[in-house]
Amino acid sequence: MLRVRIDPDANRGVGVAFTDRRGGSSQGTLSELNLGRVELDRPEHLVANVAALRHELGVEGIALVHQVHGVRVLEVDQELATASGGFGDRTILDEAPDAEHPMPAADAMVSRLPGVALAIRVADCLPVMLADPAAGVIGAAHAGRAGLLGGVLPAVVARMRAAGAADILAWIGPHICGSCYEVPQAMAEEVWASHPATRATTSWGTPSLDLGAAALDQLAGLGVTAVGLDPCTRENPDLFSHRRDPGSGRLAGLVWIKG
Ligand SMILES: [Zn+2]
């Protein structure tokens, strides 16, 4: 269920985790621990998956956003928690187009709220978890190509600093690597020019983007100490990958302050 888990008791009260695809209820290409694709999966499987993950992490709730490849940062506070019914396991169904209480659209979150994990759902994009454990401020961002180039990382870091964070650490979860993320030549050249750290070539010799390297470069420039975690989603069958399988489910990166 968890590819990586940093226990809050070993990290000054802040937990960090990244899921793999094992240990859930979903079937077929979504098997097993799909945490997104509300349009494809069965509601009872999604709710069971969130419940299993919440239990595994030992948190009271999991805050989710409807990710749109933008740069909006949502503040997760007590007011939002109350309005969202405590981020219970059924919150994941609020992403359905006909949901009564639609999930807020955003690609990053900041929080000082203990016991609630911030979750970013991905299948090749970068889940970036951030924290200043001493200040009790956490953040999370969905950084795919559009979000990364659009500035979602500076946006979430600025909001964390406004909330009192000073020394910020970051963990970049499993994502598609520079040897796999093929893009058209013209796009590659445009991105390489504006973000030189992205320059890469696929293992089959075509232009590609290394978004992980670009994120590490951006975070270093923001004064954030970051680590990039392997492996590549496309190359690892235990992880969901949109490029390998467009019908795949979604993994999650999670960060939380111990309740
Ligand atoms: Zn790869």
Shape: globular
Strand content: 15-25%
Q: Please state how the strands of the largest beta sheet are arranged side by side.
A: 4-5-8-7-9-12
CATH topology: the name is: CNF1/YfiH-like putative cysteine hydrolases
Low-pLDDT parts are none
CATH superfamily: CNF1/YfiH-like putative cysteine hydrolases
Instruction: Give the class-level CATH name.
Output: Alpha Beta
**Percent helix range:** 10-25%
Q: What number is the mean pLDDT?
A: 97
Structural class: alpha+beta
List the bound ligands.
zinc ion
Q: End-to-end span in angstroms?
A: 21 Å
Tell me what the CATH architecture is. Answer: 4-Layer Sandwich
What's the number of domains? 1
Number of helices: 6
Radius of gyration: 17 Å
**SSE succession:** EEHEEHEEEEHHEHEEHEE
Biggest pleated sheet = 6 strands, mixed
Q: What is the β-strand count?
A: 13
Description:
This protein has helices at 43-57, 78-83, 145-150, 152-162, 185-194, 211-221; strands at residues 2-6, 14-19, 61-63, 73-76, 108-111, 116-122, 126-132, 137-143, 169-172, 199-201, 207-209, 225-228, 251-257. A hairpin with a 5-residue loop joins strand 10 and strand 11 (207-209). A 6-stranded mixed sheet has the order 4-5-8-7-9-12. A 5-stranded mixed sheet has the order 1-2-13-6-3. It has a single domain, classed as 4-Layer Sandwich (CNF1/YfiH-like putative cysteine hydrolases). It is globular and about 50 Å long. The chain has 259 residues and is of the alpha+beta class. The structure holds zinc ion. Residues 176-177, 179-180, 232, 234-235 line the site of zinc ion.
